[in-house]
Amino acid sequence: MLRNVAVIALPEVAIFELGVLCELFGYDRTAEGLPSYDFALCSTDGRPVIGHAGFEIGVQHDISRVDDADLVAVTPYAYRRHEVPAAVTDALRRAHERGAWVMSVCTGAFALGAAGLLDERRCTTHWLHTDELARRHPAAKVDPDVLYVQDGKILTSAGTAASVDAGLHLVRQEHSSAIATMIARRMVVPPHRDGGQAQYIETPVQPIECETLQPVLALVLETLDRPHSVETMAGLAHMAPRTFARKFRSETGATPHDWLTSQRLLLARRLLEDSDFGVDAIAERTGFGSAATLRHHFAQRLSTTPQAYRGTFRSHSV
After folding, report:
1. What is the structure's pLDDT at 198?
2. What residues are paired with 142 via a beta bridge?
């Protein structure tokens, strides 16, 4: 049973995520029938750390406190400017070896990677940093789309508010869904969020800079409601379909079908955010043809539904 929690604060610690961990595990809620934890905030040497906003945070424990914990959580930090101390990576490895939970929130995943705990494991971090995490730790199986990932007793979360999702998931694992729901109500958050972080990734329209296909792509973007295919696009380029497909991949880095689907989804997202069109009308205007097809691609690529996406991102000006 989870009773003892140690949180490691690294240089330029992110305050929101640290606050989430304190809210989840640092309050005594036994009077409400909820579990309590022996909670400790640690730094490498027990001295204060600087938060990302520039103020100092007092710390009561050094890294040795981690050896007593059932859960060791690592907060986000400025990983590009600070190396993870060997004392921290050693403590993380020891915690994992003795069967403790090891959790990172947001860019805290880079500390787990430095300790070798992400090798051959599914993991995630904030979508802005997933490419860098994969580059630094090529043996890690980085999933940029999810809010959190549990692989064994290693738990990694995406950015900022996803730390709430990951923490509540851990409470469900260790206690029960009922306990997690009670804590979620206390925090005034949903006990579970559908979808993944792919729906939060900003995907602005990229300028078209193809050597030979630019006029074709520009025309397709202007007529996404039409039933385009490799054959029709190849006809616009006056090429055989196979030749066009090879040329398309070489100039854009994607297949014609993948590129077309991505552009249609991008337009659908904009219409859901900024218009009053219903899902059927948006499916027609984006070339998906039917609401069922639009829902299929939303589920496949964004792990959500058009209606749920609109509820989250709809512009207040509409």
Report:
1. 56
2. 123
